[in-house]
Amino acid sequence: MTLHPLHRRAVVADTHNDLLMAVSARPPHVWSSFFRDRWLPQLTAGGVDLQVLPVFIDDQYRPEGALRQTLRMIECAHVIAEGNADRVSLCRDAREIDAALESGRIALVLAMESMPGLDASVELIPTVHRLGVRVASIAHFGRTPLADGSAEDATGSGLTSHGVAALAEMERLGIIFDVSHLGASGVAHVLELATRPVIATHSSARALRDHHRNLTDEQLRGVAATGGVVCVNFFAPFLAEQPAGYTLDRLLDHIEHIAGVAGIDHVGLGPDFVKEVYDDLMPPFCEGENDRGVDPKATVPGLAGPEGLPLVTEGLLARGLPEKDVEKIIGGNVHRLFGELLT
C-alpha cells in the first residue's frame, strides 16, 4: 500500500498493540529476530512512528505466575529494542521519543494492562517505572485489588484504597493513567481524583455501540477535561453489534463521534490488533466466541493489523476532515500528550 503523503509526514501513534504477547511466547533467543521478521514489516507498512506496547498477562499465568510473566514480557521489550536498535528505540521520556522520531526509528513505549503480579503492592510501581513502564491501567475485565473492570459494572465500585494509592503514585512518577477497561464507577472516581491528564488507550464510543468496554459521552468529556486523549479501539465487536457493521465507515463514525464530543484535540488511535496474536496463541479447538461473547478474531476488513492504518487516514480525508485535524487524530494528539507528561 502506498502511503498518503499526509500519513507519511505525520506522527502516527498506536496506543495498543499486544504484539509482546506473541513475541514473548517464543524462546528468548528468537525474540529480536521474530519481531524483526514478523512485526517490524507490518509497523513499517502502516507508517507507525510511535508504538505503545502493553504488558498483558493471560489467565493461564494468574495469579501465581503473573509477576514472573510481567517481568518476562518487559525483558522481551528490552531485547526487541536492543536487537533492532537501527529501527526502533524503547523510550522512557519525551526527549527519547523525539530523538527516535528524528532518527527515523519507531519509538516504543512500555505499558501495563491491569498490573497483575503487582496487585495491591503499590510499592512495586516505582520498580516497573525503573524498568521503563510509562503507561498503565489497573483493571481488565474482572476484579483486581485496585479496581473493578468494566465487565463488573454492576458492582458500582470505585477504586479501592490501594487503587487510589496507585493513581497517586503513578502521577508522582509520571506514569500515564489508562482508564480503558476500568468500570464506570472507577472511571468516575479517577476523573474526580486525577490531577494530571489521563488516557484511554483503546476505547470506542458507547453512544454508537452499547458495550461496557466503550466510553459514554460523559466519560469522553471527562477524559478531555483532564487534558487527556481517548484512543479509538478498532476491535470489530466493539464498533457494531452485528458483523454487517464491521466496516471502516463504522470505525470512522466512532472517531468522528469522539472528536465531536471530546474535541479534536482529545482523540487518537488505539487499534488493539489482536487477530494475529490469537492466531499465534489460541489452539484451533478454542476458536469461536470467547467467554465474553465475542469472536476475538473478528476484524474490520483491511484492518487486521498495523499495515492497514493508512486506510484510516485516507478515510478521514475522504470525509472532508482538514489535514491538520487528521494529523491530530492519527498521532499528533498522543505525541503531544506524551510530550507533556513524559518529562
TrEMBL record:
This is Membrane dipeptidase (Peptidase family M19). SUPFAM superfamilies: Metallo-dependent hydrolases (SSF51556). It comes from the Bacteria. Pfam families: Peptidase_M19 (PF01244). InterPro entries: Metal_Hydrolase (IPR032466), Pept_M19 (IPR008257). It comes from Nonomuraea coxensis DSM 45129.
